[in-house]
Amino acid sequence: MKKLEQEFIEQFGEEGERALYFAPGRVNLIGEHTDYNGGHVFPCALSVGTYAVARKREDQKVRFYSMNFPSHGIIESSLDSLIYSDEDDWANYPKGVIALFQQDYAIPQGVDIAYYGNIPNGAGLSSSASIELATAVVLRDLFHLSIEMVEMVKLSQKAENEFVGVNCGIMDQFAIGMGKKDHAVLLNCDTLTYKQTPIRLEDHALIIANTNKRRGLADSKYNERRMQCEEALKALQEELDVTSLGDVTEEQFEAYKHLIIDAETRKRARHAVYENRRTMKAVNFLNEGDVEAFGKLMNESHVSLRDDYEVTGNELDAMVEASWKEGAVGSRMTGAGFGGCTISIVEKDNVEAFIKNVGVSYKHQTGLEGDFYVVEIGDGAHRVVEGI
């Protein structure tokens, strides 16, 4: 934080009152590829994320600087000409948030903002949504806007969809905006109804393992899986009065799965239905303090993603299987798949040996070095200090 303040002064000058803000990254504990199927997800905010130092300007300029991308220097625009530009690279995310806020709220003057993110690069922990929500809390605070966090979440997602052109769901922004220390959020992605559930991990730690495998297939396979799930839903609707696969119970699926003629499409639907139910069961286990039972559901989730949804790949499977052998209470891929990260629950006494042994096994299996991060569950986006 001190380094970021110093960098802000070097880039933008010392005059004027500044404030510091933070927006976390996020990880999804269970509930993968359920969001667009009318189901539930169960993400939490992390203790790593994006810091921002900001102050108001007297003119219409908006200026951005990132300690993560110093070669880009200061990226400058104006409130009356906020348009997407390839040259502006990462700054399109905060520009998009400001542009979307302007449609409904008064942003009377420009801002200077310096950012620093300690989310591991390429780890799939949602650095883009983190910088969006950091920008949103800056705007709310500096201009005293009367806006609820849920609305800020929606505007941030809309900025990524419409301004940047990335067709993301709302889970990332919601978890980052609505996160709460030592809690995960059970979210219905269709209705945005949610419940914050305590995560009691006194004797356990959360470990994120980055496979460092680029997710080259994720986009094309994502679209393919969505279409298959839509086809499966249409088939089931011949007999069932449901609006999404998230409405289908396990018993209904088993009774009516014959309506889905194509075997591969049937497997995709089975994952969506069972994963949604697993996610809701997982919350009940955590409410009861049963971390072991929650871990078993994490393992079942990975098997389903591997065998029914087929979005894991050799690297994710190697990381998860090594984690199981090293005694993880639960371990699964998290995110879109075909690379990216796993999330594991590990006994605290075993963390050091776990990281060492899983790393060795993973490199032996894949030839790649894995990166490991012991993370804590933190609060959602907020102002950190009154003035600096």
Description:
The termini are close together. The chain has helices at residues 2-12, 92-104, 127-142, 149-164, 171-178, 218-236, 250-256, 263-287, 291-307, 314-325, 351-366; strands at 19-28, 40-41, 43-56, 61-66, 75-78, 111-117, 183-188, 194-198, 204-210, 330-334, 341-347, 371-375, 382-385. The protein contains 11 helices and 13 strands.
List the helices and strands and how they pair.
Layout: H1 2-12, E1 19-28, E2 40-41, E3 43-56, E4 61-66, E5 75-78, H2 92-104, E6 111-117, H3 127-142, H4 149-164, H5 171-178, E7 183-188, E8 194-198, E9 204-210, H6 218-236, H7 250-256, H8 263-287, H9 291-307, H10 314-325, E10 330-334, E11 341-347, H11 351-366, E12 371-375, E13 382-385
Helix pairs in contact: 2-3, 2-4, 3-4, 3-5, 4-5, 6-8, 8-9, 10-11
Task: Name a few traits of the molecule.
single chain, 388 residues, alpha+beta, Ribosomal Protein S5, domain 2, 6-stranded mixed beta sheet, 4-stranded antiparallel beta sheet, 11 helices, 41% helix, globular
The DSSP helix count reads 11
CATH topology of the domain at 2-199 and 378-385: Ribosomal Protein S5, domain 2
The outline comes out as: globular
- CATH architecture heading of the domain at 2-199 and 378-385: 2-Layer Sandwich
Largest sheet: 6 strands, mixed
Sketch the topology as an H/E string, one letter per element.
Answer: HEEEEEHEHHHEEEHHHHHEEHEE
The number of distinct β-strands equals 13
The portion of residues assigned to helices is 40-55%
Radius of gyration based on Cα positions:
22 Å
Strands of the biggest beta sheet: in what spatial order?
Answer: 5-4-6-3-1-13
Q: In CATH's first tier, which class of the domain at 2-199 and 378-385 applies?
A: Alpha Beta
Average pLDDT taken over every residue: 94
The chain-level structural class is: alpha+beta
Instruction: Note the gap between the termini.
Output: 10 Å
- Flag low-confidence runs: none
**Strand percent estimate:** 15-25%
